[in-house]
Target: DUF309 domain-containing protein
Amino acid sequence: MMEAVPQEFWQGVEQFNNKDYYACHDTLEALWMESTEPQKTFYQGILQIAVALYHLGNHNWRGAVILLGEGINRLRYYQPTYAEIDVEQFSIESQQLLTALQQAGPEKVAEFVRQFQTSDTYIDRDRTLELPKIVRVALQ
Model:
């Protein structure tokens, strides 16, 4: 467990949840570069998912799929919670998006982008899926 969560981390969380993925990348990259383990890999996992969603917004299906997978993989060691974050739920939402993108293929990336630009929800005939969000958990 992290001793103290830096304020910059919460800034990155807010940027992520506001779909400002590029700014989130910049904020968390600065933390990542200065950190040591175990925080370094934690920051990198969230950072990769942020960059994946940035790629998705630019219709880069391949970049989104690769970085979603890498970010999810890095966060597996931090579940269920870490740094006051519900890592398990964040990973589940990210995995659901990754699976949906893989099943849809690159030819349908524009539909994901269109729906996520106006909502945090993607709906097709087979599923409803939420855009991943980082949720803070209450300390006990």
Q: What stands out?
A: The beta strands are 81-82, 85-86, 121-123, 128-130. The helical segments are 7-17, 21-34, 39-57, 61-75, 87-104, 109-118. The mean pLDDT is 93. The CA atoms of residues 104 and 112 lie 9 Å apart.
